[in-house]
Amino acid sequence: MKFDNKTILITGASAGIGKALGEKLIETSCKLILVSRKTKKIVTWVNEIKNPKAKILILYNDVADKNSVNDVYQKSISEFGNIDVAILNSGVAEKITPQNFNSDVAEKIINTNFLGAVYWIEQILPTMLKRGKGIIAPVSSLADNRGYSGSGFYSASKAALSVFAEGLTLELKKHGIKVLTIKPGFVKTSMTDKNKFRMPFIISPQLAAEYILSGIEKEKRIIQFPFAAVVGSKIMRVLPYRIIEKLLIKK
Q: Is the predicted pLDDT of residue 120 greater than 60, yes or no?
């Protein structure tokens, strides 16, 4: 598919991958809906781009709030009509240790990373079913493959999203709707800047956006990158737990 003349939604568009996606799509003749809790940041980077080709709609949205998603969806279709491509990119992460373990953080991460995508799909799916077409592209992670120390809530939320998206892919194929699951490795963003550990094969948000948009154009069911990180994640998935302990648990 091509992006010209399409209506494209990006959640979490204020920074990181969402911003990089917006910066590339803004150069196409699409209708671009950019949503985030930090709309001032979106306005700032959009204003830095001279003569954008896209028609742009910027809206405040907390994806973890079902009512907010509904309100933003209604404003979006009122302004731009049906959404052709939904890139559900919003995500949060927080390191959890036995000392700071609490369910409030679990709710925040799961509500944003998993339910935030579910809430948006709930809004856009009925119209896509009527039209018999559309692309839903949730952003999961290569961290969906195992439970990692300090990242249990994050990995669990992404594993839930990946498994959910896989089932949805099967259910929607006969209706002409494509579900394209996006699985980045480490991407240099404000979220990963907090990490104190080494992040192998880390890439820029701009390169991540190139991978994602190329994968959407080709309608790849799973868009995972970079290659070295994908291979590493597959190896980590099949390693026996006793080896994982030796590799990841510090003495």
A: yes
Q: Give residue 75's pLDDT.
A: 98
Query: Model pTM?
Result: 0.95
Q: How far is 46 from 61, CA to CA, in rounded Å?
A: 17
| Cβ–Cβ < 8 Å for 25, 49 | no
- Domains assigned to the chain: 7-248 (3.40.50.720)
Is the pLDDT confidence value at 250 over 70?
A: no
